Amino acid sequence: MNLVFDTYYFDENKANTICLVFENWESAHPDFEFSEIKEGVEEYIPGQFYKRELPCIISLLEKIKTQIQDISCIVIDGFVYLDDHMKPGLGKHLYDQLNGNIPVIGVAKTNFATVEKYKLPLKRGNSENPLYISSVGIEMNTAYDLIRKMNGTFRIPTLLKKVDTLTRQIN
User: Fold this and answer.
1) What is the DSSP letter of 3?
2) 110 C-beta neighbours (distance < 10 Å), count
3) How far is CA 144 from CA 18, 23, 126, in A?
4) 54-82 in b/e burial notation, b at 16+ Cβ within 10 A?
5) Average pLDDT, the chain
6) Disulfide engineering: 91 pairs with which of 7, 14, 53, 80, CB 3.0-4.6 Å?
7) How many whole angstroms from its chain centre is CA 36?
């Protein structure tokens, strides 16, 4: 199974993390949905975003692992590396936290100018604005192809749009 995570921050220190689980990369609907609201979330520090989001992802992932053992890949909103010297971003920190056992694909909506070698621009639909694909534990071209073939005719694949939308629906 493949997982896509996203987190939305609200109030001063709360976060809503959603994970959609899917087997088929071309699916328009997840096989499972998981969510968790976490309090006491760190403040955003430029260049250290992982300190804010990684604990949210890991917390929800631990709950997911009690029900789903066969995780093939994780997709995150962001970059794997922050520069061409492989400074770890959220994706690399997640990969390391998982002892390199689960490949991570980063899908970023905005360019990070300090990264050139470790990202591929992907244009989907009729959009002139690319998504930026990065990866660790899986070849970048393979990661690019997986995100390219995801369901949806727009720039952002259907499941990535859905996970983003769900994070903002706080009950």
Assistant:
1) E
2) 10
3) 23, 17, 17
4) bbbbeebbeebeeebeebebbbbbbbbbb
5) 95
6) 80
7) 16
Could you tell me which of 170, 159, 161, 166 has the C-alpha nearest to residue 1? 159
Amino acid present at 3: L
pLDDT of residue 47: 74
* Angle CA 47–49–55, to nearest 5: 145
Q: How much is the pTM?
A: 0.95
Question: pLDDT value at position 140?
Answer: 97
The residue written with tokens 């260049």 in the block is: 47
Helix axes 50-64, 90-97, angle to 10 degrees: 40
pLDDT in tens, 106-115: 999 999 878 9
Q: What are the DSSP E strand ranges found in 40-168?
A: 73-77, 104-108, 120-122, 131-136
Closest CA to 80 of 67, 99, 93: 93
State both tokens at 87: 């400074």
pLDDT tens per residue, range 47-83? 778 889 999 999 999 999 999 989 999 999 999 999 9
